[in-house]
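User: My advisor asked me to double-check a structure prediction for ABC-2 type transporter before group meeting. I don't want to rely on an old file, so could you generate it fresh from this sequence?
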Amino acid sequence: MKRFLITLYWDIVRQYRNGFYFVSVFVAALTALVLRQFDAVDWSIWWPPILLENLVINAFYFMAGIVLLEKGEGTLEAQIVTPLRDYEYLLAKVISLFALSALESLALILIVSGPAFNWLWMLLGIAGFVAMYAFYGFFVVSRYDSITEFLLPSALWTLGFSLPLLAYFDLWQHWSLFLHPLQAPLLLIHAAYAPLPAWQLAYAVVYTGVWVGIGYVIGQRAFYRFVITKEGVGRQ
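Assistant: Sure, here is a fresh prediction for ABC-2 type transporter from the sequence you gave:
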């Protein structure tokens, strides 16, 4: 536990020193400025897609940025030969990014629409987004060694993120959207503002947990394949 907490602390410090918190403040301020121009908005409908798109930066791209920084500095290679376990490394990244994302998202929501929402469902929805994006971000970025190699293909890697938004814009309504991993946290955000049928709420909680678990597994395998094996270092 001590090893994990130290890793978590230094992840937060590294994110702060590299300007991630300043980027989050800027994005939140700019987004709030734009959203406050709209009157009579049903936020139960619009916060889910807004947060889905906003958290791509905080989780997917920030995770990628952290890993590429560590590769460039040689710290990722150094961590391989320490007692730090892969799950401690990954979970520290996800939790630190959740803390940053939750602060930004809640500040944005409070500024724009106030505190009239269910905090539990909101935080669970944000946590679901962040965990899925971050684990997937690590899975993708672990195979690249520089930001220039990563940026262009990252657009293709993230192409499917916005598919659940088709229903919000009445472009496509189909039951198969419930198979998409991000549909579940979208419903959790919606549940923070409006009651959902029991089956939808159960689906949202369970399916979010399932895909977070899948994300962890693919992140862990990517760590072994593209980090440990690539460096030629085994682990007990």
